[in-house]
C-alpha cells in the first residue's frame, strides 16, 4: 500500500513501520529505455531482493563517487549486458520503504548497443501504455503516470 505525503511516497508504512523514521537517503539511478517503436523496458526484480518479482525500470544504487549517469551505465552493463548512450535526466522522487529511504533518479535512454541479456535471472518485457504486467513496484508506478501525461500532451 502506498500513500503520498508532501514530497515522499510512503510504501507499506515506510521507515516508521520499522521504528526508523529517520534514515539516510540511498541514491538510485533508474533507466527508462525507450525503443524506436515507443515501447519501454520493464524488468522483474531478481529472486532474493526485496520486492522480488515486482516489475520495475532497470537500474540500481549509486556507488561512492559515482554520478547518476555513471551508475546507470554500470548497472545496465552488469544487469543487462548493454552499453548505453546518453542518459537524459528526467524526474526524481523520494520513496520511503520499510527497507530503505530511496531517491530515484529517473533518466530516459534512447540509444544503447548490445543484445539484452538477463544476467541476474530477471524477466523483461517491452511495454506500452497501459501496462499489462503486474505487480509493478510502487516506486515505479509514478513513472507510468508521467509517461501517460506525456502521451496525452502529444495527442
Ligand atoms: N531499479 C529500480 N529501483 C527502484 C525502482 N523503483 C523503486 O522504488 N526502486 C527502489 C527499489 C530499491 O529499494 C532501490 C534499488 O535498489 P536495488 O537493491 O534494486 O539496487 P542494486 O541493484 O544496486 O542492489 P544491490 O547491489 O544492493 O543488490 O530502488 C525502479 O523503477 N527501478
UniProtKB/TrEMBL annotation:
InterPro entries: MutT-like, Nudix_hydrolase, NUDIX_hydrolase-like_dom_sf, NUDIX_hydrolase_CS, NUDIX_hydrolase_dom. Pfam families: NUDIX. It comes from Hydrogenophaga electricum. This is 8-oxo-dGTP diphosphatase. Residues 25-149 form the Nudix hydrolase domain. It catalyses: 8-oxo-GTP + H2O = 8-oxo-GMP + diphosphate + H(+); 8-oxo-dGTP + H2O = 8-oxo-dGMP + diphosphate + H(+). PROSITE patterns: NUDIX, NUDIX_BOX. Keywords: DNA damage, DNA repair, DNA replication, Hydrolase, Magnesium, Metal-binding, Mutator protein. The keyword Nucleotide-binding does not apply. It is an enzyme of class 3 (hydrolase). It comes from the Bacteria. Its EC number is 3.6.1.55. The keyword Transmembrane does not apply. CDD domains: NUDIX_MutT_NudA_like (cd03425).
Amino acid at each position: 500500500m502506498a500513500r503520498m505525503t508532501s514530497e515522499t511516497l510512503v510504501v507499506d508504512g515506510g521507515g516508521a513501520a520499522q521504528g526508523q523514521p529517520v534514515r539516510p537517503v540511498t541514491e538510485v539511478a533508474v533507466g527508462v529505455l525507450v525503443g524506436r517503436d515507443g515501447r519501454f523496458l520493464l524488468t522483474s526484480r531478481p529472486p532474493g531482493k526485496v520486492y522480488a518479482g515486482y516489475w520495475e525500470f532497470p537500474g540500481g544504487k549509486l556507488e561512492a563517487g559515482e554520478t547518476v549517469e555513471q551508475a546507470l551505465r554500470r548497472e545496465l552493463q552488469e544487469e543487462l549486458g548493454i552499453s548505453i548512450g546518453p542518459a537524459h535526466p528526467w524526474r526524481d522522487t523520494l520513496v520511503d520503504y520499510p527497507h530503505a529511504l530511496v531517491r530515484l533518479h529517473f533518466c530516459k535512454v534512447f540509444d544503447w548497443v548490445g543484445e539484452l541479456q538477463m544476467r541476474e535471472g530477471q524477466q523483461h518485457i517491452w511495454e506500452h501504455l497501459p501496462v499489462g504486467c503486474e505487480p509493478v513496484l510502487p516506486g515505479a508506478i509514478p513513472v507510468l503516470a508521467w509517461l501517460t501525461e506525456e502521451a496525452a500532451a502529444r495527442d
